[in-house]
Design brief:
alpha+beta; four-stranded antiparallel sheet
């Protein structure tokens, strides 16, 4: 068993409220895409709101009802990369500009967590803030420059 798992967060600002026809196709695909993630090799966990189906009820920025968060944990960078770019998820990802604003700054981050740890919204947003403030490094990175997990001895 790996001593560390990979956490990921991405945030996005919708072009319209969740109940708008403009984003209806995105909302309709959420159950299928979430089920695909849940069944993907290397998947560990994904953040859900009080309803338990997805995270659309969570607000990473309190004063912005259009800002959504997606956070999950995976066994490895490779497992997350395969799900993101080598599954049906890619079709939804390719259409993101139809539903989400283009953000000028980093909107995602990857980081290592001890196996069994489940990130909070606050922790995930802290990683987005970190990568925005100092750029990529071992504490917050992207697929472009992945970092290895910490030495296993640090997990104990």
């Amino acid at each position: 068993m790996n001593a560390f798992h990979l956490a990921q967060v991405n945030v996005g600002r919708l072009l319209a409220p969740l109940d708008s026809p403009l984003v209806a196709d995105f909302v309709a695909q959420l159950p299928e895409i979430n089920a695909l993630a849940d069944a993907a090799p290397g998947f560990v966990w994904r953040m859900v709101d009080g309803g338990g189906a997805d995270s659309t009820g969570l607000r990473p920025e309190r004063d912005d009802d259009l800002m959504l968060i997606n956070c999950s944990v995976w066994e490895s960078v490779e497992a997350l990369r395969d799900y993101t770019y080598r599954s049906e998820h890619l079709k939804v990802l390719a259409r993101r500009r139809e539903w989400f604003e283009r953000l000028a700054d980093y909107h995602h981050a990857l980081w290592w967590v001890p196996a069994g740890h489940l990130p909070t919204v606050e922790e995930a947003m802290d990683r987005v803030a970190l990568i925005r403030q100092v750029g990529e490094g071992p504490e917050a990175f992207t697929f472009r420059a992945p970092h290895p997990p910490p030495a296993a001895s640090l997990a104990t």
